[in-house]
Amino acid sequence: MADGKTAASARRPSGQRRADAQRNIDKILTAGLKLYSSRPGVSVAEVAEAAGVGRVTLYGHFPSRTELAKALMDRAFEETEAVWQAVDTSGPADEALDRVLREQWHLMERNRNLRDNVVGDVSPQWLRQRHDPILRRIEALITRGRDEGAFRTDLPLSWLVTSLYSLVHAASDEISAGRLTTEQAPEILSASLRSLYRR
């Protein structure tokens, strides 16, 4: 039976095979992102089952758990960057930064479980590097705030960016530990950054 399917697949035009493969990839990434974002401890077998494909098919596209984790993070960041395009960053930079944090928090919260699932599969350096496009936008807002006189200039710009990155992840860790609620986090995070960034 399996050999018959393989032979039938081989007889299909290459364009159709590529389309079938892309559909499977999309199903795997959609199911994987949903599962990885819902709770920690998700297995590759669970992703394959949710996607409606066999583990052999999944591993054919993503040969290791690390490759799957990176692909899922890439998909998550593509969505996050798309949302960034819609956030209003006009007006005073301090107000814009606060608005970004609050409007983006739902994605940060979604990515909390995602990060918990991939943290053992990708290096901290890779994860930080993947944040770079978003952090460059944060850096531009902080720079604007410094030019406007709203943000301090006595600390390195890179330190202010890293502090935001670290505090967002610290808030996520506190939620996972049950010491902070998802409702409390945006306000506490915003207050902490206002205190840190204020001149």
TrEMBL record:
Keywords: DNA-binding, Transcription, Transcription regulation. Residues 43-62 bind DNA. It comes from the Bacteria. Residues 22-80 form the HTH tetR-type domain. Residues 1-22 are annotated as: Disordered. Pfam families: TetR_N. The keyword Magnesium does not apply. InterPro entries: Homeodomain-like_sf (IPR009057), HTH-type_TetR-like_transc_reg (IPR050109), HTH_TetR (IPR001647), Tet_transcr_reg_TetR-rel_C_sf (IPR036271). Coiled coil: none annotated. The keyword DNA-binding applies. PANTHER family: HTH-TYPE TRANSCRIPTIONAL REGULATOR BETI (PTHR30055:SF234), HTH-TYPE TRANSCRIPTIONAL REGULATOR RUTR (PTHR30055). This is TetR/AcrR family transcriptional regulator. It comes from Glycomyces rhizosphaerae.
